[in-house]
Specification:
Order of helices and strands: HHHHHEHEHEHEEHEHEHEHEEHEE
Shape: elongated
Helix content: 40-55%
Strand order of the largest sheet: 2-1-3-4-5-11
């Protein structure tokens, strides 16, 4: 067919199939083909299917640079998380990508390592590529980083925390309320001398600490000497060392609330090695319900956080913002679940 020959000549000349090739294959205008492939509202579903089938037959891959030039936005969504070694963020990222990809968006993942300056540098880099949207972890960042986001005009949703600020979109949970709930559970189990063991000390850990303090103050049982805070990254090995340090410092401790499950898992292994009976002598609780917590000896009591649900909901909220749709409520609290197991 004539148009096939023309397409072949064009492909040989440029080395790349173009949107015009797809439009000819589908028998539509380039503008209609572009709108159909972008998922723009108002395009006849039959036309969308025809264009998508034509693109599939030609093995067409859109040119992101051309799309960005045409629309002043790329098909990228930048996602900034603190760590890739934490299963919590892996679950969240998986849900984000599974939600954005069918809508035609590609995720650019940036790892901040809990470093405010590194986050600011990533924002400058990614915003220069004109992403269509941003997903950032938490609400706490430098004034310059916050100003970069605001000045960019790029829709942004904050993850893992909720915000009461007007115009700030967020999906998460109340870390403070969750910290208070698990501490109240330990109090209800008859424990009074309850320690808090924290590592990394990022804003969400400190919010859990505040919830712990809130519960103990209300019960008249708060003892600052039972707070053990370590800025080093959280790990099983660190959890074991911190439990040993806590027991040496305060042998009268009756329960421990570890700020993360990996710390708590290490603490349980250390208790087993030291012959400390759990929960008889010492109750142990964690946070996040990470993989393996239900397989510990005894199984670990923890707070289950809905990280996959947060990822899906935040990506869905961002899609609506990128389409110019109204989003209500702007802050979505997906809550948490107290999971009581044998360690308490």
């Amino acid at each position: 067919m004539p148009h096939d020959e023309e397409r072949q000549r064009r492909s040989r000349a440029t080395g790349r199939l173009t949107l015009a090739d797809v439009a000819r294959e589908a028998g539509v205008s380039p503008i209609t083909a572009s709108r159909a492939l972008r998922g723009t509202r108002g395009v006849d579903p039959a036309l969308v299917q025809r264009v998508q089938e034509a693109a599939a037959r030609l093995h067409y891959v859109p040119d992101p640079a051309a799309r960005a030039l045409a629309s002043a936005r790329s098909a990228h969504v930048a996602v900034l998380i603190p760590l890739l070694s934490n299963a919590l963020f892996v679950d969240l990222l998986d849900a984000v990508q599974r939600t954005l990809m069918p809508a035609g968006y590609v995720t650019l993942i940036g790892v901040t390592h809990y470093d405010a300056a590194e986050e600011e540098a990533l924002l400058r880099n990614y915003l220069a590529h004109r992403p269509s949207g941003l997903l950032v972890t938490g609400l706490d960042r430098t004034p310059d980083a916050a100003a970069l986001i605001a000045a960019s005009g790029v829709p942004c949703v904050h993850l893992m925390e909720t915000s009461a600020s007007a115009g700030q979109y967020s999906v998460g949970l109340s870390q403070q309320a969750a910290g208070r709930a698990i501490t109240e559970h330990l109090l209800a189990a008859g424990r009074r001398r309850i320690a808090f063991v924290g590592a990394q000390l990022d804003p969400r850990v400190l919010q859990r600490l505040e919830g712990y303090r809130e519960a103990l103050r209300a019960a008249g049982a708060h003892d600052p000497g039972l707070e053990l805070l370590e800025p080093a990254p959280s790990s099983l090995a660190l959890g074991a060392r911190l439990l040993e340090r806590l027991l040496a410092r305060r042998p009268d401790v009756e329960a421990v609330f570890f700020c993360n499950d990996d710390l708590a898992q290490g603490g349980l292994l250390a208790a087993l090695r030291l012959g400390v009976a759990v929960p008889g002598r010492l109750a142990v609780a964690g946070f996040n319900d990470l993989a393996g917590s239900d397989q510990m000896l005894p199984p670990l009591t923890t707070v289950r956080t809905p990280r996959a649900e947060i990822g899906r909901a935040a990506a869905t909220m961002l899609l609506r913002l990128m389409r110019g749709e109204a989003v209500e409520p702007a802050s979505l609290d997906l809550g948490y679940e107290l999971v009581v197991r044998g360690s308490t």
